[in-house]
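Run: sequence + iron/sulfur cluster -> complex structure.
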Amino acid sequence: MRDARYDILFEPIKIGPLTAKNRFYQVPHCNGGGYRDPSAAAEMRGIKSQGGWAVIFTEQCEMHHSSEITPFIELRLWEDKDIPQLRRMSEKMKEHGALAGIQLAYSGINGPNLYSKEVPLAPSALPIRTFTNDPVQARSLSKSEIKDLRRWFVNAAKRSKDAGFDLINLYGAHGFGIFQHFLSRATNQRSDEYGGSLENRARFANEVIGDIRDAVGDSMAIALRVSLDETIGDLGFSNAEVRDFVEMNRNLPDIWDLAQGTWEDCSGPSRFKEEAAQEELVKGIHDLTDKPIVGVGRFTSPDVMAKMIKSGTLDMIGCARPSIADPFLPKKIEEGRIEDIRECIGCNICITGDMTMSISRCTQNPTFMEEWRKGWHPETMNAKGDSENVLVIGSGPAGLEAAWALCRRGYDVAVAEARDVIGGRVTRERALPGLSAWGRVVDYRDYQLSQRPNVEIYRESELDADSILEFGFQNVAIATGSTWRRDGVARQHVVPMPIAQAAKVYTPDDLMDGTVPGGNVVVFDDDHYYMGGVLAELLVKQGAKVTLITPSAYVSDWTNNTLEQATIHAKLDDLGVEIILNRGVTEIGADHVISNCVYTGKTRIFECDAVVMVASRTGNDQLFHDLTNRQEEWADAGIRSVKLFGDAEASGPIAWATYAGHRYARELDGEDIGDDLPFRREITELAAQ
Ligand code: ADP
Ligand code: SF4
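>> structure
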């Protein structure tokens, strides 16, 4: 059972008129589903209730139509007709004893209103501050409009109560919520009683919280979510001012929910931020208030969590990503199953669901946002089907996840791995600069598999079609991964590019195998995710002089979606990497590359000793084709199915591989659904009360 060291995490705590059953607080987090997929989002929150969280929040919920952040998909509470779908969410949250929370957001200077077409309202008239630099400005709220806004908050609070929520979280963090816009001198340049001194800038928060408390405070608790530092220097809401604000308003909310800075800071990836990275910013604030404090820090270690509370730094442990990677984190600590925690790897793939307005995934937890769509539970697999055993070939993220999910279904599983180590691409990539935490994808599955009697892993076992036909497993799962291309085929070049015989061209696989070129090296990045930037870093660390050329306008372009693009650019610049944007490579010579401007086609020559080609990958699917070419031998060999999945089928991020492995395991021996859709969807209906 539970280790006494962690008892402190299970002590109930009062939040205003309510009591939370333990210290685990799922902070509001996006999921890419929002108002478009309310059932998927509701089921996902319900799973967290099963997993033992004491407080569970929605993502940000736009509380009035005059402020919304289209194209991003969050929740909406604009009229009574929104209440029923939100009530379903709160009911799911409360099913297993959690308190249900809703985050009310008025986006102010952050809401371009592309959908509602209303003129944005903010403390001061400024251009809208979004990821997309929309050509829209907000106008300044008049005093009578501030009164309107206060009333809209009260209306939203009453509707939240009606929808069954226990807590209201007022969003004033990450630069996204209007409370911060009032508090910060950068976004509040008013000269009336709402601007100027900190007391004046805090007036709006005081008024709204007072109004909400009068309206629903007898039964609902109020959290105020502010950032610990706006991170734009003294002009912004700095950490020193945050401390003054808390001290001057000791008992303002029922709980202080202290996020880090910008969203990029608060959800910093493991490549750049450690667990508990906010500790220095939050330390000591406890002495300034009588109310409890919750803070985040990608907490996955119960020892770090217990330390945060014992040291008086925090009262509750706030988690978004750790609760996504393992919705059962509190329950596992409670049951003394620490080694079963599926730790977040800090890759921020979950955030890309919001940034791309799709639906979120998680590298570690492939069931995330599939709880309702596919009926996948993170801890429980479907029952075993007709057949008995599976041979999984390849122990990368796809093969390992398949093996782990299959053995839980009750199949006998053998995993064959060509190398002497398991983990495939993860084992190779975890050794690259900044990516060590990604190794948790392997470590978690390695340990879990070692605990199961029905799985065997065979290392140094490269299989071919002959040996597979000889073994006679009923199901053959081929997850043999992919190989980086040397010929430049990716986006700029859809057929191999001209490369001189004498040119020295290396692939990411070469570098990961330990062959790292020196001298003047051009990294040509036409992949656009993390690999080009990471390899540039590796090359510099090993002494090379690096020029990174990419046809994109950004280094590691797609990492805009994982909130780390700006940090990657800054890091490479610091390392002395010459960054060449908006240029491709048309030709590679023995000692140079010819680069073209993507707009004008004008060429330029870059002298170099070697080129690292970060292009695309080819699936290692030969084995699959060898087997399918011999399909007539399957019956005699006892083979019922052969399936190719993961990077071998079509390359993608690691999260795509764990998803593919999980899906294979779920669907094995399942009924053939023919042309039917493999997931549920819904058209959201607004209903009258
Ligand atoms: P994925 O991301 O799809 O899981 P990876 O590239 O990470 O793919 O992993 C594939 C693994 O499969 C690698 O560890 C590789 O060594 C192994 N592998 C490839 N071909 C064979 C084979 N014929 N027999 C056994 N293992 C193989
Ligand atoms: Fe953590 Fe990555 Fe999962 Fe997000 S996607 S919760 S960062 S493991």
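>> summary
The pocket of iron/sulfur cluster (ligand 2) is lined by residues 321, 324-325, 344-350, 362-364 (CB under 6 Å). The chain has a mean pLDDT of 97.
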